[in-house]
Amino acid sequence: MTGTDGTVPKPKKPAHKARVLAVGTDGRNQYTADRDARAGHRSATNSRSAGPFVGYELHLAVQARDVKWTNYIDKTTMSDEVPGVITCLALVPAGTHRGRAIVDDLVAAKKAGAPIDDVVWDPGYSLCKPDTTHHKLAQARIHQTFQPVSHQRGIRPFSGEALLVDGQLYSSLLPNELRDLPMPPRGAPEAVKVEHETKFNQRARWRMARHAGPDSDGATRWRCPFCAGLLKARQFPTTMRRPVTVPLVPVDEGRERCCAGIITAMPVELPWWQRIPFGTTAWRLSMGRRQVVESVNAALKGTFADLSRGFFRVFGQTKMTILLGFTVAGYNLDRIRSYRAKKRAQEEAKPAQPKRRRGTWQEIVEPATTTTTTDTGPPT
Ligand SMILES: [Zn+2]
Fold first, then answer.
1. Residue 359 belongs to a domain
2. Rounded mean pLDDT of 31-47?
3. Residue 187 within a domain
4. Do 140 and 104 contact (CB within 8 A), yes or no?
């Protein structure tokens, strides 16, 4: 047999088949003496190539800062720095569904009172089917920040008078040139990234603003950007009373109304919705919080402990999870100590407080209360 170009194709190597020792109660093959270990696939790193492996996968949730304020376009401010401690962990047999492995733990933690408002997903999780991850977390009132993959992007059908683009609702008047925006190629120079981001930032002005919800069914209500005061246009005279800072945009002649009123969206229509529109500068700043998990991964793969093959000299998911608990507790203490030391160093580096003001009303009217009290420890 010859190929179309006349060359003889190489004979295929016989595929290497691993020996199956038994089949577990979960119906999956068991390849090693550890009865809980399963086969999975791992992606490439600097030191090894991608391929199958037998063992476990560790899913971690790491504390990160909150988004304190954002203008949903190009500005995001974060809350104060927090120690990057591990708050949730799940050690599961390799090849277990990623979303299921950690989502239930996060929801349980929230129910138990952990202040989880937002999850910044790694790409591996956010591409899971929405009913196993996104909707479950959203129902528990946990917002998600993530980078949509290509099958989650683009224009989707939407029942109401709005456009559903890249998971977000936009005014149906959104200009055509802002509808399908590409992301910059990986490793693109800074100038190219900024150029792409500018388009996303422009588009964010056309977003529908959440008016209410979600209610107990997950339904949300949305107002168009002209009604919500994000944009103004000459065709809609009432919007022209908005401040000069609100951008004036051209709208097709003949449009008399900006919208038909507030619309309602059901959660099934908005699986990939994010509070900050995807692709904007504000979104990138929020997404940057993902870095904290990278440093935890590095620490657990070398700088603090090396959780590679042979770290745990026991078999079985339960035994390993117990031992892992000690490792993670040790790591968290290390993080807290380091955080405190950093804070102390910052306090010491601060310039001395300026002199208190003299001759204030308080000093004149209530002189007795101006004496400062210092805490001298327990009374003797
Ligand atoms: Zn409107």
1. no
2. 86
3. yes
4. no
> Does residue 132 sit in the same domain as residue 194?
no
Considering 253, 273, 293, which residue would you say is the last residue of a domain?
Answer: 273
Average pLDDT over residues 162-166: 95
pLDDT at 125: 85
| 103 alpha carbon – ligand 1 mean position (Å) | 37
Q: What is the pTM of this model?
A: 0.83
How many domains are contained in the chain?
Answer: 2
pLDDT grade for 368, boundaries at 50, 70 and 90:
low
Ligand 1 centre from 171 Cα, in Å? 8
Give me the pLDDT at residue 238, please.
Answer: 92
CA of 293 to the centre of ligand 1 (A): 41
Boundaries of domain holding 331: 19-146+275-348
Asked if residue 120 and residue 263 are part of one domain, the reply reads no
Residue 232 in domain: yes
**Cα 156 to averaged position of ligand 1 atoms, centre (Å):** 21
Distance, in Å, from the CA atom of 90 to the CA atom of 298, rounded to the nearest integer, reads: 18
Q: How far is CA 149 from CA 45, 87, 122, 142, 303, in A?
A: 21, 27, 11, 20, 31
Beta bridge partners of 156: 164
Distance from the alpha carbon of residue 279 to the mean position of ligand 1, in angstroms: 24
The encoded tokens of residue 376 equal: 């001298």
**Ligand 1 midpoint to CA 249 (Å):** 14
